[in-house]
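call fold(seq) -> tokens
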Amino acid sequence: MATNGTGSHAKTLPKAKDLWHHLSPEAVARRPSPLKTAFKYAIDPRIVSLGGGLPLPAYFPFETISATAPAAPFTLYNDPELSANAPIVEVEVDRYNRNQEPGMIPLATAMQYGQSDGCKPLLQWISEHTETVHHPPYSNWGCLMTVGNTQGWDAALRLLTSRGDTILAEEYTFSSAMEAAHAQGVRSVPVKVDLEGILAEKLDEQLTNWQGPKPKLLYTIPTGQNPTGGTLSPERRKAVYDVLSKHDIIIVEDEPYYFLQMDTYDPGTSATKLPSPPTAEQEPEKYNKFLSKLVTSYLSLDVDGRVLRLDSFSKVMAPGTRLGWIVAQDPFIERLTRQNEVSIQTPAGFSQAIVYSLLSKWGQNGYLDWLIELRKEYTHRRNVCLDALDKFFVQPSAHAPAGLRDVVEWKEPTAGMFFWLKLDARKHPLHGQLTPLQLEKRIYEAAIEHGILFIPGSWFRADQDPVDETVKPADDEEVSVFFRGTFATVPQDKLIEGVKLFAEVIGKEFLS
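ret:
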């Protein structure tokens, strides 16, 4: 069983609702692995274990693994002129930890077959982090380690759905998530959104008028949404949660971009690098201030215990760590543990050992320092992108003497890595001769020819049929074409160049 919510906060809260009826037949049928149940005896030092098929740690060909990382509070880390002198921490994990160093999972443990919910020290650290950030409003919640949110989502699908079932998702959503559902024979149905996110009143109307068995769950990326970059406000999250509670629908909250929330955009300031955040000594309320600025999560609102939250280190450390976790009520975590036992077993010991040692060196506040520094860096990159959009799409230029603002629309992203461009297809000279999808393909291919890659919006449609490739346009698509860009991946000069190149393509298409 995963580590539960900790501290006095958990003791004063009610338990989650019994939502066992939401589990799929596959999830209900899972039984504990007999070999796994015996593992607790195999690691008991009082018992001589000849029962487990565990290789001897002395034969592992790894004596130590080590890494160098920046030290909190990271104020110099991203400054090219000063980073060479930035403080660092050395992380080293050895085979047996004979010196009893705190904050270490020995390689003899990390590299061995282990508990399927994850290494206990790392699981405890993550549970404390979850309590600090989200304060789940019921007592019997837990965490379970995953191999990132992609695997976590696959596990959630198998926990809650069967072939032939239906799920809900934002009208435009992460296409790989929908492919995972379609491969399991699960149909996805879009929920109406605006540039911020889900429209609760439309969702309620959709579910009230639903014909046949209700959807099993809502899959949502509410912060820095992929692909639109939208972030749903706390008030609208509460409205969506209330609708789904009313209709008894599970929420899978996929939040890889949650900590990439940004400060308010100040136009024309991207040329100036944002100052480093103050230290805790300079601003004693630094951490509380940071946490208070974070948008309310669905987990924080979850009085029923109907949210499965998918969290990950992929966007805040590195995708290659392949480490994430699910937060949910204990009965769901127990079923997911049974699934891990016969699938991934447990995330890679290398990753768990190194990440836990680094987090232990940083401490909970040091990790918040890291997230605060990331917030500053992504805010700056977002500002560079928005200034470039204004310069090349709004201001008069050689490719668009009167600008392109009546053709292109966007909303300033406040989180994540993406920006979402909405093009008015009615302004194109071939409107009426080309469908929006044909126009989208035409622009995409012209952009590639011009040396710039943006991703077509139709690729993210939630209701693409996995067999029939015909895409049914949304109402808005009858007059609009969408493209997704990112400000996260390339250096600043390439980001500006990319926006300029795409503006040239749009100018040529719409104004020629």
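The two ends are 64 Å apart (CA to CA).
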